[in-house]
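Morning run. Coffee first, then this:
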Amino acid sequence: MPLSNLASLWLFPVTHHQAAIRVLRYLKRSPGRGLFFPQSSDLQLFGFNDADWGGCVDTRRSVSGYCFFIGQSLVSWKSKKQNTVSCSSAEAEYRALASATRELQWMCFLLHDLHQAPSRLPVLYCDNQSALHISANPVFHERTKHLDIDFHLVCEKLQAGVMRLLPISSHNQTAEVFTKAAGPRQFYECINKLGMVDIYQPLTCEGILEKQANTEATEDIT
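And here it is:
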């Protein structure tokens, strides 16, 4: 076997090993980081969805990612490789949009069963203009025939008034952390938007732990 082929066989395992080491290093350095759920929160349901076109170096399948909030609380999130290879970024983004739409519909059903209807119409944010145009275009043209099921799913939910689909800039796309590797600054900005705090750093909890400690100290004095 040529040396070039041997090198390519070793490339992917090394890449995966390095990625796993980075994950373990992050977990080791963040033992107190987790989600914070405030007591008072609006019942507004909204979410973000994103996709990384051809992000898997092994199969060239894209990765879909979404996250949903009820008020300020993160309640659902997912990052998953798509089942088929997408021929364009628009296709990858639209498949991710359909996946997020299904999750939003399920959460609406769940809230309805709990007799906790959202205070306003649920909102889904997408940063891909092509996906937004496809969902808003009732004409099913040849370029989107292979997206038949996903196309009708998103359009049906929009026309039924189940949700609103709104554009958002890539800089403010919270779901991007579920689909792409990010630098330290962008990564921590995203997880802060997800509502993650570190219990060992009171200031990141908006002073919650400090206020609790001060309250306990005051009670002990009185």
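Residues 204-222 have pLDDT under 50 and may be disordered. Good start to the day.
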